[in-house]
Amino acid sequence: MPAHWVLVADRTRARLFATTDTGKSFNELEDIAHAEGRMASRELRTDAQGRFYGKGERQQAHTAPPHVSAAEHETERYAKLIAERLDIACVRHEFDRLHLVAPPEFLGELRGALDETTRAHAGGEVAKNYVNLPDAELKP
Prior knowledge:
With 140 residues, this protein is of the alpha/beta class. Helices cover 29% and strands 29% of the residues.
């Protein structure tokens, strides 16, 4: 029987479910926690901002602001980790259809991190945060 996978995720947790065509069973396959997703940027940084010397009148150092905050970088890393898991499962034909459920900003990160082949198996997307709903309320 072909399997449909449902990924319910946000930047702190990802839950992977499987269901069959009949939709009667809805089993959790994996729960991938990401504690760093709850941390503020200042908690993730271990060092001060980088410095550079400009070509001004004096040799004065300036701080170089990061292009991406530490929290945003951590979210990107987590989306890539989840995408790698899904990409491998797609290559192994572990599912026929993949449904993504995540808040809009994290859904965009996931979509961008997925391989083209995995994206082609995407059956639908829901831009809502349902990751903390009890299993009984998550229905196929």
